[in-house]
Design brief:
The complex is a heterodimer of chains A (386) and B (354). Chain A has 386 residues and is of the alpha+beta class. Chain A has 12 helices and 8 strands. In chain A, a hairpin with a 2-residue loop joins strand 2 and strand 3. In chain A, helix 8 packs antiparallel against helix 11 and helix 10 crosses helix 12. Chain A is globular. By secondary structure, chain B is α+β, with helices and mostly antiparallel strands. Helices cover 50% and strands 15% of the residues of chain B. In chain B, the strands form 3 sheets. Chain B has a 4-stranded mixed beta sheet with strand order 1-4-5-8, covered by helices on one side. A 4-stranded antiparallel beta sheet of chain B has the order 2-3-7-6, with no helix packed on it. A two-stranded antiparallel ribbon of chain B has the order 9-10. Classes of the chains: A alpha+beta (386), B alpha+beta (354).
Chain lengths: 386, 354
């Protein structure tokens, strides 16, 4: 039974360490030129086109994709190194990250050739930003309850309805969305949804920002009113999106971004407690580092399995479940452990600035990209319980 | 780990399946299962896996031996297999020949010290030494003014105060009062008590991870059999989510332990990378043991709390093994101090070092 659970100890190959040095040097240059502040986690979600283009020039977007489409045919493990270094540095990856992680791979698999030739190279150059149109006002985790309609018309479809909680829709050039092309059947309630590529410049699309409790407005309501999407923008099987949606989850769920989102507060805790912490502080740091290290080894292991062409859906769900719960609790643990730092000391100034932001970000981490409840359902299915 | 491809591990699993069936052992009140199991393990050369052939062992690789320990955990093996393997490994560091019978190692905790006196005898006390009473010999790491030495001691020469761990396995206090060793040689350069504790910690981590794998299996199976409120309890979402968490903790323990074992198997010395891997493994496996034992028992309800049911063989050992070769709290302080001494900006380079 547990033979199904595999987390082989993957060692990153030497080329990854060469690459890691290059990425760190590049990020240091970007910090030096003032592109972003490595001590400010708020920058991660900023759209910085110049930075994206320079990352693209380095060949670090679409790293695993075929060269024919602007990719670089490098390994999942090399991509992993770039992703984790960018995340830990608080680099502004907004413009390219979603396209690199999941939209590009979907297009590679399902888009017609001329669309692949058009869009994928632009993703690789860091020019285009993608958003993901899944949730609707009455359809969040229950993806297959989506109602936004794609009605067949001459040469394409007319889209009507509303997507919500759509991250980056306000800056995105494209959206990958699922729309209802047929009603569900009695036998299969997942039937009737189709995946589409939507150009955000299409008339009839209105993006309304939604304020978040962090004070920012990174997610949006997207209203479609007779927005026209051409036939060749339907991706994969008509009415059969449910067959496609799950395979990309292993990519989406197991990456370093699933446990590093609040990492900066751990760095700052170590800074605040100084080089000779008391027993309580030392034990706290030790446990957190052990947990972090284990998470990363699990996540690298999944990357290794993806590299080997496997689809470790259950393992990936486990990584996201444990990883997001950990990164959610981390700010609270850091707060506990920092409770007795000398108030007048200067080495907790950064912590004081970033901890409240991490606290505010924390609640969303176990919701976005598949809630904890959904993940545990997937794991339970993998265990043979459902 | 690629256990199934590995002939040494497959041999161990075959012996465990044939001679260490949990149900049989659980019903056997007088320990009749022990002698045939040990004999089969000895015939297969497993207790001295990590001793070279010219020193009396079977010369298996570190990786193969680690695989055996994982399997021993999956079967909650309660004979001094891990202890004899560690003892053999310790003796092999100084090229001291290993005898064939049951052994254990002292010290088994980071705070205990055995010292080498000027007359060549050993003194000191080691607590929580697993299976000391069952051992014919003890492999000892002793300190002296000229550094660490590795000694083989006849167990009849030491004073043993009997104790039991949570699972009812021997965990004894061993006193050395000017004991003359059978053999003694200097430890290799750089080998100290931390080295021994890290190796022991990884051994216990692998055993804990193995026990958790079995706890998950047993719990999933039980939930698919047990009917309550007119359906299998595996159909209740609350039970499913508990089992999903158990799977997550099991996965974390498996990953941490096998990653640490892989690091040691491929390392030239017990460097910073080994320290991080081994301490993290012991910390994370111990944390996983706590959460997993609670869930496995919760899923089983009252039946899992009985002596008759096999569940306690795994849960109590997973919990007990946390205490050997440095607890998770001990290692967390050590790791935390190292991280703090390196400084905040050196944390990520350490974590991302492999």
């Amino acid at each position: 039974m547990t033979a199904a659970l595999r987390f082989d100890p993957i060692r990153l190959p030497p080329e990854c360490e060469v690459l890691r040095k290059e990425v760190r040097a590049f990020l240091a240059e970007e910090v030096a030129r003032g592109t972003f502040d490595p001590h400010s986690p708020q920058g991660q979600d900023s759209d910085v086109p110049g930075f994206s283009k320079r990352v693209g020039e380095r060949g670090w977007i679409g790293m695993t994709w075929p060269k024919k489409y602007g990719g670089h045919e490098r390994s999942f493990l090399e991509r992993y190194v770039v992703t984790e270094e960018m995340r830990v540095a608080n680099a502004p990856t907004r413009r390219f990250f979603v396209a690199d992680r999941q939209s590009g791979p979907v297009l590679l698999k399902y888009a017609p050739e001329h669309i692949k030739m058009d869009i994928l190279p632009r993703i690789c150059r860091g020019e285009v930003c993608f958003s993901i149109g899944m949730s609707e006002p009455n359809s969040g985790s229950d993806l297959f309850a989506a109602k936004t309609k794609a009605t067949k018309t001459d040469g394409g479809y007319l889209i009507n309805g509303t997507k919500i909680w759509t991250s980056a829709a306000h800056v995105a050039n494209y959206m990958l969305a699922i729309f209802r092309t047929s009603p569900p059947t009695k036998e299969n309630r997942r039937h009737g949804l189709t995946q589409f590529l939507v150009d955000m410049k299409t008339p009839g699309i209105k993006v309304n920002p939604i304020g978040q409790l962090t004070g920012k407005a990174d997610f949006n309501e997207v209203v479609f009113t007779d927005a026209f999407v051409p036939d060749d923008h339907a991706l994969g099987e008509i009415d059969g999106a449910w067959k496609q949606a799950t395979s990309e989850l292993a990519y989406e769920r197991s990456g370093p971004e699933r446990f590093l989102e609040t990492y900066y507060v751990l760095t700052e805790l170590v800074r605040a407690l100084g080089e000779a912490p008391d027993t309580r502080g030392a034990e706290g740091i030790g446990r957190l580092v052990a947990q972090l290290h284990t998470m990363r080894r699990m996540s690298v292991s999944v990357a290794g399995m993806l590299h080997a062409g496997k689809e470790p859906v259950v393992e990936a769900s486990i990584v996201k479940d444990i990883g997001t719960v950990w990164e959610q609790q981390l700010p609270q643990r850091v707060r506990d452990l920092a409770a007795f730092v000398e108030p007048d000391a200067s080495n907790h100034e950064i912590l004081d600035t970033v901890l409240p932001f991490a606290m505010k970000v924390a609640p969303k981490l176990t919701i976005q990209g598949g809630t904890t409840e959904v993940l545990r359902g997937i794991i339970a299915r993998g265990l043979g319980l459902r | 780990m690629a256990e199934s491809e590995n002939i040494v591990v497959a041999t161990a699993e075959k012996i465990f399946t044939d001679l260490a069936d949990a149900q049989t052992i659980n019903r056997d009140k007088n320990g009749a299962w022990k002698a045939p199991l040990w004999q089969a393990l000895t015939e297969a050369g497993l207790p001295l896996s990590w001793v070279s052939e010219d020193c009396g062992g079977s010369g298996a690789s570190l990786a193969e031996g680690f695989g055996v320990l994982g399997a021993a955990g999956r079967f909650a093996i309660a004979v001094p297999l891990a202890e004899t393997m560690l003892a053999g490994w310790l003796l092999a560091q100084a090229k001291v020949s290993a005898p064939e019978a049951e052994m254990t190692v002292a010290p088994a905790g980071p705070k205990d010290r055995i010292t080498l006196d000027a007359d060549g005898s050993l003194s000191g006390r080691a607590r929580g030494v697993p299976f000391a009473r069952a051992a014919k010999h003890i492999a000892v790491l002793a300190s002296s003014s000229i550094g660490f030495t590795i000694a083989l001691v006849d167990a009849a020469k030491v004073r043993i105060e009997a104790g039991l761990n949570l699972a009812g396995d021997n965990s004894d206090a061993v006193s050395f009062d000017h004991v003359q060793p059978v053999a003694i040689k200097p430890a290799p350069k750089g080998f100290d008590q931390t080295t021994l504790m890290l190796m022991g910690a990884v051994a216990r981590s692998l055993q804990i991870a193995g026990a958790l794998e079995s706890m998950l299996d047993i719990s999933v199976r039980y939930s698919n059999e047990r009917v309550a409120f007119e359906k299998k309890i595996s159909k209740f979402q609350a039970v499913q989510h508990n089992l999903a968490r158990l799977a997550g903790e099991t996965a974390a323990a498996m990953t941490a332990a096998s990653s640490a074992a892989d690091t040691i198997a491929n390392a030239i010395s017990f460097d910073d990378a080994v320290f991080l891997e081994a301490t993290a493994a012991k910390i994370r496996c111990a944390e996983a043991a706590e959460k997993s034992a609670a869930i496995a028992h919760q899923v089983h309800g009252a039946i899992g709390y009985t002596l008759e049911h096999i569940l306690h063989r795994y849960t109590m050992r997973a919990l007990a093994w946390r205490d050997d070769f440095g607890s998770e709290s001990y290692w967390a302080v050590e790791l935390g101090n190292r991280v703090a001494a390196r400084g905040a900006d050196e944390l990520w380079p350490l974590v991302a070092s492999r």
